[in-house]
Each structure stands twice: as structure tokens, then as C-alpha cells.
Amino acid sequence: MDDLRKIRELYGEPEEGPGVRNRVRARIEAGGGRRRPRWTPMLASLAVAAVAAVAFAVPRLMTAHPAEDKVSVLRAAAGVAEVLPPTKGAYWHVKRLINDSEVRELWVARDGRAWTTTRSGTTTVSAPTKEPFTMDGHPMTIAEIEALPGDPVALRAHVNGILRDVPERERGGVVADALSGLLWSKPAPPDVRAAAYRALAELPDVRYLGRSTFAYDVRGVKRELVIDPRDSQVVKAITGVATEVVLEAEWTDEKQ
Predict the structure, then answer these.
(1) Which tens digits make up the pLDDT trace of 175-215?
(2) Model's pTM, two decimal places?
(3) Which of 81, 120, 203, 247 has the smallest C-beta neighbourhood within 10 Å, fewest atoms?
(4) At residue 156, does pLDDT exceed 90?
(5) What number of H helices and E strands is found in the chain?
């Protein structure tokens, strides 16, 4: 139960009730933003246990509603996402814990420079990367991501246009994956993230597994996302045998 207590200390006590947007607006007025809590080295070792605890704690937010299903949960997350203020910074930074053994970080400057850092045990490797953002292999710039439509129908049509060469039998899962990437791995602004959530809610290829967890298949490989409905952020992504705990996904002025 210590892990559950630590999760509550990190994220606060789960709240219930339908007034999600009002609570988020109140948090914003008090100075909140998109930043996830900072993870110190001491807490990093708790990351996997923490996500396991979130898997049990987060449902308390959503299961209070008898009508809980894919559409209602994703639309609720969209309502949270769209009222969060856009964050600013010199670098887009994503930090992930992979299979409880390796920490990977991505840093992308607004001028396009990008590099990755991988830490495993006592070994740290840094290297530049040329295409930090892609959509099924199609490179994207920060400017292109920020200019994506904030309307779910228009966003889905735009994504379908980028993925027009994907065979029809694969299209649903690939589109779901492209939209999911806008929720955390790419620097999408609040209205685009909200549109992505609403577009995902309408995709038949997206399945709701309960406990704020969604799944879809990409070319035969199952992918799952666990979200935190309180701030609309992705807390865990699972692809095949790889489990990624999302430690940070934010704009920052701090450089590696």
C-alpha cells in the first residue's frame, strides 16, 4: 500500500463527479499547466510500481459514472485537454522508462535540432537524430504539428491524407496510432490534443479495456495506452513486449 500512498502524494486524491472542466479551469487559474510532476532519482525507481498503482487508482475517477465507455472517457479527456493552457519552452522533451530498465529521452529544439539520450545502468549514450517526429514514417516538423486542425473531423481527414498510401485493411489501426502520438510523443497544442481524443472516440478500431486503458492493433501488433483523466496525459504505453512509462512530455527551457 506504500506505492498507492506515493501515487496519491504525486497526483493527489482522485476526484469524482462530472464537473471535470470546472475543476481544470480552477487548477489553471491557480497556476497549473501541462507539466507532469518531476521525477527525482528516488522516485524513478518507483515508476513501474507507480503505474501499476495508477491502474487501480485512476478508475475511481471514471467508474463512478455508469455510462463509462470508450466514447465517454475519451470525450471527457478531450474536455480536460482543450482547457489546458499551451506551455512554452525552448525544447520539447519526452522522458520514458522502458521495461523498468532503461531511460530514454528526446530533446527537440524549435529550430529542428534533435538528440536522444539513453541510460541503462551506468551507461549513458547520446546521439543526434534527424527525424524526431514522424507519422507512420512521414517526417513532421514542429510547425506542421502545431498547425494541425483543432477540429476532430478535419484532423482525422488531414491524418488520412498523410497516410493515403496505407492499405485500407491497415488504415484504421495506423490512423489510431497516428492520433495517439499527438497525445504525448509530439508537441501538439491543447486544441489538437483535444481533437485527437475526440477523433479516437469515433474510431471503431479503438477498443476500451476499462481502467482508463485503450487498445488498437497496428499491422498485427497490439498497442495499449493508459491515460490519467485528471490531466488528459498518457501515463503508460505498451507495444508488444515493450512497456513505456511516460515520465515527462513537455516544453522546457532546461537543456540536457
Answers:
(1) 999 999 999 999 999 999 999 999 999 999 999 999 999 99
(2) 0.75
(3) 120
(4) yes
(5) 10, 11
Q: Is 156 left (phi over 0), alpha (psi -120 to 50) or beta?
A: alpha
> 113: which 3 cell numbers?
535540432
Give the three cell numbers for residue 225.
495506452
Whole-angstrom distance, CA of residue 209 vs CA of residue 58? 13
What cell numbers appear for 16 in the block?
469524482
Contacts from 41-45 at CB under 8 Å and sequence distance 24+?
43/6, 43/10, 44/97, 44/103, 44/247
Whether the Cβ atoms of residue 151 and residue 195 lie closer than 8 Å to each other? yes
Cβ atoms of 248 and 254 within 8 Å: the answer is no
What mean pLDDT comes out for the span 20-39? Answer: 48
The x, y and z cell numbers of residue 249, run together, are: 512530455
pLDDT digits (tens, 9 = 90+) for 131-145: 999 999 999 999 999
